[in-house]
């Protein structure tokens, strides 16, 4: 729909209706005009400071003295320190009713700061033969579509995202570590990470704090179960989140303790080790390799989506 914008963590698209009016400077009366539909798609890169737009401009109608029109397109960062402007095509190109111009712009974050948020503006200049431009048409994506680039989320690498879109970590229901997450999302009182039902998780980026969180929850309350191969303490919410039981003032004795079991009749089952009702955290008895798999997925997710400290995200186990 014209005038609507849609976005995810790395992509966005939208459109705008533009008008061109021809005014007789002596009589101040409108003697011609044209209408246009401008479409724009943004493509960001999680592991690069380079980003681009793909654009189109279609002339929908024209009347009167709106003749022999030519159009140019420029997209720029409103903060010039963030990136240079780019043109969608070379110079001003001829356009007429029913014709569409296609092009794109390329941009590079200048990385003058460790983290920088900025907005963009597009200027479309239309001009007819023998006419004098009074003002070009401009449009901007809505404020929630601020772009953020950083060089801190993933070591020293650079990348850009739309930070107002909270990403979702999707885990397949294919081992006991993932069952532990799914059970916890459904049965813990806060429903951590369950979009539409519970509260989002937020990243804890300090490794020392994460280790302390893990030690607080996986304490003496956890005793290895000999029926679980290479049993390990798989805590939820994750230690690398601000919702870890330790940061809620909880320890192992306060958590639900469960044993996700191998599938029976094609479905995983869960054995309760203690009374699980009314709990805010979980200790899962999970094979160490599967426990590590969940942690690895979370780490990669943080990097691939450039999730910064305290930034929220959701979970889905499918």
UniProtKB/TrEMBL annotation:
Superkingdom classification of source: Bacteria
Keyword vocabulary terms for this entry: Plasmid
Protein name per UniProt: Uncharacterized protein
Species, as recorded: Streptomyces rimosus
